[in-house]
Each structure stands twice: as structure tokens, then as C-alpha cells.
Amino acid sequence: MLATGKEVLQHAHENGYAVGAFNVNNMEIVQAIIAAAEETNSPVILQASQGGLKYAGVEYIAQMSKIAAYNAKVPVVIHLDHGTDFKQIMQCIRHGFTSVMIDGSKYPLEGNIEITNKVIEIAHAVGVSVEAELGKIGGTEDDITVSEKEATFTDPDDAEKFVKETGVDSLAIAIGTAHGPYKGEPKLDFDRLKVIKERLNMPIVLHGSSGVPEDSIRKAVSLGVNKINIDTDIRMAFARAVREFVINNPEAYDPRKILEPAKKEMQKIIAEKMIMFGSAGRA
């Protein structure tokens, strides 16, 4: 069933768990995510990055996701991840996305507030939820790169001002995670998370969560994170399964046989994440 980000994340906020947001690029990934969500009876967010939209096309992503949502037994949100282009955000809304992210984190606070409000004015008018970002999360996700030097943690005072002046539905904060594979173990600023959650009392989003240790994820959820983004772990599971199958079956040429193990491996990883996030059984 198709749901908005606000519906799903508000329930998670009120009941103390997090919903997994998994990046989609093709049909097999969509199918693996939905299969894991139904296996664990978990609400789920199918999200597309700018790179994913460039690769598959917004029409393909939107239609695949809507078909999956309409046939799923669990709530499914279709979300734009890290939207930085206003026209692209509007395009996603027109094609049926039920949630969009406006990433204005590269702007000063006032500029971020201004562009976020511009998106909110249109999105909320048609029932689409809006996520924003405050602070800069390091690493690379498709076309967006933030160096370690540029990465900045979210200031609680700025976060309070931002939410008060925008009325955004959820807020992605920077507390030490990064996009892409980690070179070492990430150290999250849990004290900062606790302060921000207490002061905002709203759904909090954690980006760059692939590779973060399970105990850190569980602690972040206990302190108020309600949406957790996962991409790299899915890509790695996909590549691992395809590589293993091709090595063991060098004569194979049927893409269905090559991709089926990848789909199963992704489903396994995604289901484990859902259980870790506490969303299993919450649909």
C-alpha cells in the first residue's frame, strides 16, 4: 500500500523505531526490498537518488515503485533522496513520489530555510512529505561529494530555528556518519543526537548508515532516529552474489539466473536491517 513519508515516520517517531530507506536502481532491487518488507512485516521506504534517476529514468523508477507499493501488503513510501535540483523535485512529485528530500545543506542556514520552504509550499499542497538536511554529511553519493574537511555536525540551535521556520516533516542530521564505504569505524555523536531529538521532538533521519556497527545503529534508534538510509550495503550484496555466481557458472548467460542470487542476497541483508531498526512487525 502506498503511504507518505509523514504517515510512516510519524508512527515510527511515536513508537520508538526506525524505518529503513533503501536506494533503488533497477527492478531486482525493488523486488528484493519489497520481499524483505513483507517477510518481516515492516513498513519501508523505496528511495531514488539523483544518480538512480539518471540511470533508470524517473518514469521507470516511479512506475516500478508504484506497482510494488500498490501490490505490497505493507506501507511503502516512494522518496527522492538528496534532491538538490528544484525542477527534478517537481518532476518526482508529478510522477507520484509521496516524499521528497530537499538537500540545501550546501547553503548558509537562511538560504537552506528559503529553498526548503519553496519546496514545502508546493509539496505539502499536494500531500507530499518533505525531508531536509542540516549540517554536511561527508563522503560521496552519486554526484554529491562532501570532503572530510567540509563535513560539519548539525548545531542543535540551528536545527531548532530551521524546523520552527520551515515546518519540515523530517530532518536529516550530521552526527558522524558518511556516504559510501567506511575506512574505519565511524564514531557517532550520540550526545548531539539526544539533544536534537529532545529539542525538536520530530522524526530524525540518519544518512550514510551502511557499515555502521549494529550496536551504534540500535543506540541511535533508541535515542530517536526514525529513518535510516541504506545504499552501499545493498550494492555490495548485489555485486558479491553476481560475482560468485559468474565465477562458479562461467558458461551462464541468462540474466535471470545471474540476477536471482543477487536478489536473494539483497533480500537477506535488507531483512536483517529491518529487524535491527526495530521496524519488523510494525506494518
What's a concise summary of this model?
Helix content is 51%, strand content 18%.
Radius of gyration: 18 Å
Structural class: alpha/beta
The overall pLDDT, averaged over residues, is 92
Task: Give start-end ranges of low-pLDDT stretches.
Answer: none
The topology string of helices and strands comes to HEHEHHEHEHEEEHEEHEHEHH
If strands are numbered along the chain, what order do they take across the biggest sheet? 1-2-3-4-5-8-10-11
How many strands in all? Answer: 11
Termini, distance in Å?
A: 10 Å
Helix count equals 11
| Inertia-based shape | globular
Beta-strand percent range? 15-25%
Largest sheet entry: 8 strands, parallel, barrel
Which percent bin holds the helix content? 40-55%
| Multimerization state | single chain
What order do the helices and strands come in, and which of them pair?
Blueprint lengths: L4 H11 L3 E5 L3 H14 L3 E5 L1 H7 L1 H14 L4 E8 L2 H9 L4 E4 L6 H17 L3 E6 L3 E4 L2 E3 L9 H11 L3 E4 L4 E2 L10 H11 L3 E3 L7 H9 L2 E6 L1 H17 L6 H23 L6
Parallel strand pairs: 1-2, 1-11, 2-3, 3-4, 4-5, 5-8, 6-9, 8-10, 10-11
Antiparallel strand pairs: 6-7
Helix pairs in contact: 2-4, 2-11, 3-4, 6-7, 7-8, 10-11
